[in-house]
Amino acid sequence: MLHLSAACRYYLYSGPTDMRKGFDSLCGMITAQMNHNALSGAVFIFFNKKHNQVKLLLFEGDGFALYHKRLEQGTYELPEADHKRNSTAINSEQLQLILQGISLKSVRRRKRYQHPPQSSG
Predict the structure, then answer these.
(1) In whole angstroms, what is the distance from residue 120 CA to residue 9 CA?
(2) pLDDT in tens, 49-101
(3) First CA to last CA across the chain, in angstroms?
(4) Residue 27 CB contacts under 8 Å (≥ 6 apart), including other chains
(5) By C-alpha distance, which of 93, 30, 14 is closest to 64?
(6) Quick one: which of 68, 65, 43 has its CA closest to 53?
(7) Nearest to 14 by CA among 68, 89, 116, 72
(8) Distance from C-alpha of 80 to C-alpha of 17, rounded to nearest angstrom
(9) Which residue of 7, 23, 59, 63 is most buried, as measured by CB atoms within 10 A?
């Protein structure tokens, strides 16, 4: 079973991905196109053109793990992406909603307290 942690970072590749790509090809995309380090421990998310397949790649300290899912029916809804950048940061909750097939546009969040970010300096 896939476990998504709020403590982890998640990066969504904004373009379509050839689902035949494996560990090494996806690592190359992370470095060259997403400008991230594949060894960082973050989860990198890739979808195919039809949005009916997803691959998640992460480095677990001693090697890479790859999660691949193909829907038998339906598609995944992706969040709005900044097309000037090749990757978009999302959180574990957003990824969970995407994987469960919940429409992101219909999700309404109730107001909650958020601690203001600390300024560095």
Answers:
(1) 21
(2) 999 999 999 999 999 999 999 999 999 998 887 667 889 999 999 999 999 98
(3) 42
(4) 38, 57, 64
(5) 30
(6) 68
(7) 89
(8) 17
(9) 59
